Amino acid sequence: MEEKPFPAWSSSVEQCLKEYNVKLAKGLSSFEAETRRERYGWNELKKEKGKPLWHLILEQFDDVLVKILLVAAFISFALAYLEGNESGHTGLEVYVEPLVILLILMLNAIVGVWQETNAEKALEALKKMQCEYAMVRRDGRYVPDLPAREIVPGDIVELRVGDKVPADMRIATLTTSTLRVEQSSLTGESMPVLKGTSPVLLDDCELQAKECMLFAGTTVVNGSCICIVTSIGMDTEIGKIQIQISEASQEDRDTPLTKKLDEFGERLTTVIGIVCLIVWAVNYRNFITWDNADSSFWNYHFSFEKCTYYFKIAVTLAVAAIPEGLPAVITTCLALGTRKMAQKYAIVRKLPSVETLGCTTVICSDKTGTLTTNQMSVNEFLTLGEELSTTRVFHVDGSTYNPKDGGIIGWRKCKMDESLQALAEICAVCNDAGIHRDDYLFRATGLPTEAALKVLVEKMGLPDAKARSRIRETEFASDFSNKNTAVRLGCCEWWIKRSKRLATLEFDRVRKSMSVIVLEPTGSNRLLLKGAFESVLERSSHVQLPDGSVALLDEACKQLIISNVHKMSSKGLRCLGFAFKDDLGEFSDYHSETHPAHKRLLDPSNYLEIESNLIFVGVVGLRDPPRHEVHKAIEDCRCAGIKVMVITGDNKSTAEAICQEIGLFPDKTSIRGKSFTGKEFMALSVSQQMEILSKPGDVVFSRAEPRHKQDIVRLLKDMGEVVAMTGDGVNDAPALKLADIGIAMGITGTEVAKQAADMVLADDNFSTIVTAVAEGRAIYNNMKSFIRYMISSNVGEVISIFLTAVLGIPECLIPVQLLWVNLVTDGPPATALGFNPADVDIMQKPPRNSNDPLINSWILFRYLVIGSYVGLATVGIFVLWYTQPSFMGIDLASDGHTIVSFAELRSWGQCPTWTDFLPNPFLAGDRVLSFANPCDYFTSGKVKAMTLSLSVLVAIEMFNSLNAVSEDNSLLWMPPWRNPWLLLAMLVSFGLHFVILYVPFLASIFGIVPLSMNEWLLVILVSAPVVLIDEVLKYVGRKKWLRNQKQKIE
């Protein structure tokens, strides 16, 4: 039975010391530490054994389409070897076909292995989050730089500002008045968290509620403490996340496109097998003969040579049926898609994710930094009016730490009254934060709340006109200075110089406030204070009025202020109160640490008394504001049939307020039954959970832990949803890994989240996800276009070979020619179809079902018709050359070749028995072909006819690519120049075809000869009708769709 971990968070410090058998003053002995290491192991995350390289390579060949190609390559190699031995040709040109196929498979394997080796870097990034050294008490003294991996449960560790926490710990004592820890990457909380020593009297509570615990990988941002180590290595919260990432990795499923291609590969295998068998069986009379009709069934003659020949034809058909270029074209299209998306700030790490975006049905979004800016900003502030019965509320624009982002609505800097001056002074001086500029991004140094207050001061300006003018000139000059530097806050600096800071009364949990004693320009001391609104108002006895007078704070005025603050809080604002005090008693002449009263400042218990009888100035409402583009993005999601779920570690009221503001919930009533904490949701039965998730409309989950996020994503996937999950913290990594597409934040995201994700947002913006979904849909539509284009082309090739075999005429295309068409000639147009413009209504349609077939019955019928024409045209021109002296006024016999009847062409295998057959020599390119053996006219003599067939196949497929510009729309509505890349690709493909036709060395490899102008005219005339045929089919398809729509309406 697994040992239940000790609940250190709900136990007192004394109980923890007893449990771990350690004394705070002495720590563990070296012997005891060694004993515990043998029991608990090292304080490090386990490195999972990776797959060996050979295993990764073999995995790349575990694919239906790849296996078909491997078999085709092996058979082609064997036949090429046998044929080479028979003909005496043993050069490299004999093995072109199998070598090209193997080269494609090798490149595919290299790309696959490269992707695999990069896939699990999230676990390595987790290890980097662990600190390397710690200050640990051993044998009664501190070891200042003990390697963190040597820490064991029960160790006594001292932590200071800036230290990274090396293990999960219980705080034993604070050595400063307050302790703040940045743990947003683990819990999702937007602000540094206050920690203390008091136990949390709950055995089962969220990470966020464990205020007496520190977690490995988090950072101390304020204060110092002494702690007891409770968990190390894989038993820490970050270790549990590694386990969850590993589990999520094992649950990786194929993307919808991968599934479709696998299904296509399996069906293709079956079809190829059946067709090859039919072609071979149809020609059985050519290699199995009987002496006469009355002969016994078993009295037959078997020709191994002819059997092998027709087996070669069957292999040729298999090569024609396999779209060898499809994997390469898909990869190219996805890669081009990633470039497009990168220009729109969506960086795709895993190529199939581009297509997965297109069928996303649910977006599970984090709140902080994705829906919001993750930059605290002042939204509004209030002070008293001219009378006690009135208040003044000022609204502030801007959502970043850039002082020039927005301003105060209706503000006049030159009219700052006494109340506003007092508020600006407190915001500037009672503040330890700063702002740093990193290129065009403004970041807070220190507490985000304090940084936002300094930005407010800059927006308020100064009461002194001369100083204001001087600062404006300085700011103008700084705009052209170094972009990576601390931002100069001129107004704050003016206040700080004006009011010299003498002492600081640090924030603590009891007072919920922080204050400073300053020397005013008048020569007297003043206490400036900010803190939680309720705490500040409770300790205030008077209020500051705009004219500088001070009035008694009566109950009516207090209720007026409280009602205004309630309105601010209902908008999701965090409200801070501001006050000052002039009558400081013994601190009235305080000047430095040598003052007699200084000893009172060393004891935080005195602060409450010092900060009493305050003069209340006003209230500032701050928040992490929603991004202004998010509201429209949410609307776009609704139109596109995509459900949005917000999953955040923040508290419930803040999450609900933000969700209402961004339009996730139109009003307060609509939020009922759609807002849950992670704990509340997990307490429900699975059927209740599924009912909530399947209801129309959006949902918000707050106080969510890593396991909650993972469980919600898993549940959605089990319901058949295609889930996109966003996140930035370590806590998000398991869910990012598990989701169909994990999306990490590029600016605020941790390295762990980025490595676990499939896509990274360069601008951390939710609206970028919606843009990426639209792009994903467009890319999928374009992929369908080129997949259908390639399949229809291959259907034509299969039909041409099938007709050749059924009619019994010489093969009009050889395998190496088919391979050239599939790989090189078809490649550029197929890739260019990836640049087709997106439909204007692409985000007005619901997500496609991931089970929808790539090719439905109507599309299949269309391409069978097109394929049939391709096959007929390819075989037809071959037959025309042999049997007709002219066609449509074009002279075919001008080269001098011998015309034979169609019956003679079909029985060419009986040529040795013909007595009077003597074919004429004819001109093929720049050489004259003559035949010592008359029957060679149907083998080596078919070079011109075969060239015509290959050229028709190339030309007809170029015209067919025009049909793929739009699946249903006519070329009159969607002309080909809407995609100029396609026209360029057609030129490239024709150019490549001309190269192999007119370069003698290549022409001999491919078994073709140059064509005359007349012959090219014939090729174009035979090829062009494919456009007209598909235009008719598109028209029928549109009529059929309109009829179905009318029936649905009726």
Automatic annotation (TrEMBL):
Enzyme Commission number(s): 7.2.2.10
Molecular function via GO: ATP binding; ATP hydrolysis activity; metal ion binding; P-type calcium transporter activity
Record keyword Transit peptide present: no
Cellular component annotations (GO), alphabetically ordered: membrane
Cellular localization per UniProt: Membrane
Keyword Nucleotidyltransferase: no
Pfam families with a match to the protein in the record: Cation_ATPase (PF13246), Cation_ATPase_C (PF00689), Cation_ATPase_N (PF00690), E1-E2_ATPase (PF00122)
Keywords: ATP-binding, Calcium, Calcium transport, Ion transport, Magnesium, Membrane, Metal-binding, Nucleotide-binding, Translocase, Transmembrane, Transmembrane helix, Transport
Annotated Cation-transporting P-type ATPase N-terminal domain residues: 7-81
Domain of life: Eukaryota
Record field: transmembrane: 64-82, 94-114, 268-288, 308-336, 798-820, 860-882, 981-1010, 1016-1036
Membrane topology of this protein: Multi-pass membrane protein
InterPro entries per the UniProt record, alphabetical: ATPase_P-typ_cation-transptr_C, ATPase_P-typ_cation-transptr_N, ATPase_P-typ_cyto_dom_N, ATPase_P-typ_P_site, ATPase_P-typ_TM_dom_sf, ATPase_P-typ_transduc_dom_A_sf, ATPase_P-type_domA, HAD-like_sf
Family according to the record: Belongs to the cation transport ATPase (P-type) (TC 3.A.3) family. Type IIA subfamily.
Name used for this protein in its record: P-type Ca(2+) transporter
Organism name: Canna indica (Indian-shot)
